[in-house]
Design brief:
heterodimer; A: about 350 residues; alpha/beta; Rossmann fold; 7-stranded mixed β-sheet; 4-stranded antiparallel β-sheet; 15 helices; globular; B: about 550 residues; 19 helices; about 35% helix
């Protein structure tokens, strides 16, 4: 399928040939802040500008054929990271290299041809699809936007291929249906097909299954798994569900308050967590087996306000093992002593 | 099994085969006038033992002697296996008596004593609910010799190549012809305590569900023991203006005691929320409910919707789905908690405000926060406030509908811990409605799995995970990723049926990975599998010999 999906040879040309050692996506020291709105009186009173530190120095790499999960509580900056990569939000600093090209430095016009290589799948397929569009139109629209397919017939052929790749077979049955005639799982597959039709290199999936019924989640996740295993694309999955991340991702990055506090191969992060936050998070994930009722290590309170990030280690106010040093020193990601693989990193002074 | 009688044979021929087909073993003399057989019955089943003894007694009059042997399931299985492999102990002459149909079904005796079933048109039995009259008629028609012949036929069937015999009127039970042992149903004691005689002569076919159902999920002895909450045979149907009636809840029964935590799980649209809304009497105007909801023995549905109002919030309270978004944004949280207290006359004015503060403290929010507005609360705090509000009138039963669905894992853990603590400290009976199996596994002692408006399996959560007896339960667990799970996560194909028309057979059959032939036609009833474990699957009538 890669012939049609990757009508993207033009894209590759635009970016120059990709060296084999350049990762698909390389994010380094990404910073995205939102300014807090000030009222007129506050501006007249010259109150200082306040910033929400949504993403505050995030770095990671993603290879083609890899699935990485970005996990964390709401407000930790997972979604902002994805939005920044997509170019929906301008970062304050850092770089986003896609196939070696820094997207941050590109202007809107230069970015446009690259956008098709970056596709997003949203949480709610009920909202992501236009209720008045037939499946055919939903899937063909991105092709019209990006000028793919010379004729209607060709676009339909590509749409059918994308739908079948997304697991909606036979696709012709679905082409003329409206979203309300589809089940939640089928809608999400249509949304995935609309992304696939552009032959993306990178798929960003923001909570792709959390709105779906339990019984169909596995199917959609397996589809994403198969897509990245085909080697055509890398997938960055954003989720708060550690069980899903553990089962489907190659690597997990745990975010807390705008930073990645731990990352590594999924197996190592889940079975050999190093950062106290990861440990706490894992301990509260409900297990399927009622006999595995481990004492959950429940952190009190919620993620602190990202406007005033705590000094030192940003996790120290909630950390069960924090020491005096944690108030002063901001830990960086490094190989923890307890790690069993060099790919494992944690940002904690005590590991 | 009935139609499987060797075709084209008259009774005589059959008898010959019977006849004494076992001659090869040399265990039974040919042409013996007095027939004697061992009848093996499962130990744990007082009802079956009783029934077997009755059969023995009745057949004795017609010259067929059954020796009732009570034995454990293990022993029974062992015998069947041995028999299957031809390693039967020579001196042991047993046939296993299976009970395929419904437990109160007197058809087994009819089978033994009438030709109807043997003759093939056993359907007529099923279609005729008037069993006792039928029984009388049939029994009167046959003389002793005829009955004896019948029993011989039955035994002949059992001894052809089959290692066992299933006696039942149910034609669909032909499925049993294979190398499977039918499961002898374990039964709750009949509610009148009189046992089988009364059942055979008196019980109409349709009365089977209430006693069994009331005991469903209620644990052993339910039916006599009065639980705090007893739901039995709850039906809810919607009458949309221009469409067919939708039967959203179809005969749901469960019971729970103070301090118990009970989970109601299933996919969306399976009737979980409708069930709990019916308990609250908060169904929409186009919905009707029937059945019994007993709180401390009082039927709150007795007078329809209106009678529920006296119990709502005071006895049974609910935390609604998305409750944290249902707080009034322009009223202070404390005021919103105090309001229902004033409405129900629990407390007024300053006393109500003080109590609201206490409730907030109880759910882990400082009392002073009652002076704040909902938008100043985080999601977790709003959910706690919603729980505090539900507890305002000191209910005994708390229904929580997806209380943690929109929350983060850490906040979810906090809320679940709160619910567990409240249930423990206040003796609250908690009904947790969720699609999230792991949440139920961690919080609840018992759970019921709902599908298409019915409970398809109920029991201790441990049993449901480790030894599910309904394919839906097993598949739901398999579709749920586990943090440390190694097994493949598989989705369940298809979708639940629409409930606007009657579903023939088992509603789960189109999605089932192990359907039987009979599942297409025969609706499985919820039956007791073992202590406090119920399932509605025809597979449970089969125990595959090891």
């Amino acid at each position: 399928m890669s012939e049609n999906g990757k009508a993207g040879s033009a894209t590759a040309g635009a970016m120059g040939t990709t060296a084999p050692n350049v990762p698909l996506l390389e994010v380094s020291d990404l910073k995205t802040y939102y300014q807090v709105r000030r009222g007129l009186t506050e501006r007249l009173a010259r109150r200082p500008k306040l910033w929400v530190h949504a993403v505050d120095g995030v770095s990671f790499r993603l290879a083609r054929g890899e699935m990485m999960a970005l996990v964390g509580e709401s407000g930790c900056g997972k979604t902002t990271t994805a939005q920044t990569i997509l170019g929906m939000v301008k970062p304050m600093g850092g770089s986003i290299r896609l196939n070696g090209t820094d997207l941050v430095k590109l202007g809107e016009r230069q970015l446009r041809p690259l956008r098709r290589t970056l596709q997003m799948i949203y949480q709610d397929p009920y909202e992501a699809l236009d209720p008045r569009f037939r499946v055919r139109e939903s899937v063909e629209e991105p092709m019209l936007v990006h000028g793919i397919g010379d004729s209607r017939a060709q676009r339909e052929k590509l749409a059918v291929e994308a739908l079948e790749r997304a697991g909606l077979a036979p696709a012709r049955v679905f082409l003329d249906r409206f979203p309300h005639e589809l089940s939640g799982g089928q809608r999400q597959r249509v949304a995935i097909a609309a992304a696939l039709v552009l032959g993306p290199d990178l798929l960003l999936a923001d909570e792709p299954v959390s709105m779906l019924d339990v019984s169909v989640r596995a199917g959609v996740l397996s589809l994403l798994d198969a897509l990245r295993r085909s080697g055509d694309m890398g997938i960055l999955m954003i989720t708060h569900d550690l069980s899903t991340a553990a089962r489907f991702a190659d690597r997990i990055a745990v975010m807390y308050l705008g930073r990645i506090v731990e990352q590594g191969p999924a197996r190592d992060v889940v079975r050999n967590p190093q950062h106290p936050y990861t440990k706490a998070l894992l301990s509260v994930v409900p297990k399927r087996d009622p006999r595995e009722r481990a004492a959950p290590q429940i952190l009190t309170g919620e993620t602190p306000n990202p406007i005033e990030v705590p000094a030192g280690c940003r996790f120290h106010p909630r950390c069960p093992v924090a020491v005096e040093r944690c108030r002063l020193e901001d830990p960086q990601l490094r190989l923890p002593a307890g790690a069993t693989t060099p790919a494992h990193q944690a940002a904690c002074l005590l590991v | 099994m009935v139609e499987d009688a060797p075709a084209g044979g008259g009774d005589g021929q059959l008898l010959d085969q019977a006849g004494y087909a076992r001659g090869s073993d040399g265990t039974r003399a040919k042409g013996d006038d007095k027939l004697s057989f061992d009848l093996a019955v499962r130990t744990e089943s007082p009802f079956n033992i009783q029934a077997a003894r009755l059969v023995a007694e009745m057949t004795k009059q017609i010259g067929v002697e059954f020796k009732v042997q009570v034995m454990s399931v293990d022993k029974l299985t062992e015998i069947t296996t041995q028999k299957k492999h031809g390693k039967m102990a020579p001196d042991f002459d047993t046939f296993i008596w299976g009970w395929g149909g419904d437990p109160y079904d007197p058809s087994l005796l009819l089978n033994l004593l009438t030709t109807k079933a043997i003759g093939g048109s056993s359907d007529s039995f099923y279609s005729n609910p008037d069993y006792d009259r039928l029984y009388d008629q049939q029994a009167a028609e046959f003389d002793t010799a005829k009955r004896k012949q019948l029993v011989q036929q039955m035994i002949a069937l059992s001894q052809r190549d089959l290692p066992y015999l299933v006696l039942t009127v149910d034609p669909i039970l032909q499925a049993y012809r294979t190398d499977r042992l039918s499961n002898v149903q374990q039964l709750c004691p009949a509610p009148n305590g009189d046992g089988i005689c009364e059942q055979v002569t008196g019980a109409p076919f349709t009365t089977i569900s209430p006693p069994v159902a009331a005991a469903a999920a209620g644990g052993p002895g339910a039916g006599r023991h009065m639980s705090l909450l007893e739901v039995s045979g709850l039906h809810v149907w919607f009458e949309p203006p221009h469409a067919a009636e939708v039967h959203a809840v179809q005969g749901v029964s469960f019971a729970l005691d103070a301090g118990e935590r009970f989970g109601l799980v299933g996919e969306s649209g399976c009737g979980k929320t409708t069930t709990v809304l019916a308990l609250m009497g908060l169904l929409p105007p186009n919905a009707s409910a029937a059945g019994e909801v007993l709180i401390n023995g009082q039927n709150i549905l007795a007078g329809g919707e209106d009678s529920v109002q006296a119990y709502r919030w005071k006895d049974v309270a609910m935390v609604f789905q998305g409750a944290m978004n249902a707080l009034n944004p322009v009223k202070k949280v404390g005021w919103q908690i105090a309001e229902p207290m004033a409405f129900h006359g629990v407390a007024q004015g300053a006393a109500a405000r003080k109590r609201a503060g206490e409730l907030l403290e109880m759910v882990g929010i400082p009392a002073a926060a009652g002076e704040r507005y909902p938008h100043e609360f985080s999601g977790g705090m709003r959910q706690r406030a919603a729980i505090a509000m539900a507890l305002a009138c000191e209910p005994k039963i708390l229904l929580a509908d997806e209380p943690t669905t929109a929350l983060d894992v850490m906040v979810q853990a906090q809320i679940l811990e709160l619910l567990m603590r409240l249930s423990r400290d206040l003796g609250l009976a908690l009904v947790l409605v969720t699609h999230d199996l792991p949440v139920v596994a961690q919080v609840c002692e018992r759970a019921a799995v709902m599908y298409a408006g019915e409970i398809v399996e109920a029991g201790p959560t441990e049993t449901l995970y480790h030894a599910p007896r309904h394919p839906y339960t097993r598949l739901l667990f398999a579709a749920t990723p586990d943090l440390y799970g190694q097994d493949a996560v598989i989705s369940i194909p298809g979708a639940p049926p629409h409930l606007d028309s009657e579903v023939a057979g088992c509603p789960f059959r189109p999605r089932c990975d192990v359907p039987l032939e009979r599942c297409a036609e025969e609706h499985p009833e919820l039956r007791l599998i073992e202590a406090a474990h119920y399932a509605a699957c025809h597979r449970n009538d089969l125990v595959v010999a090891p």
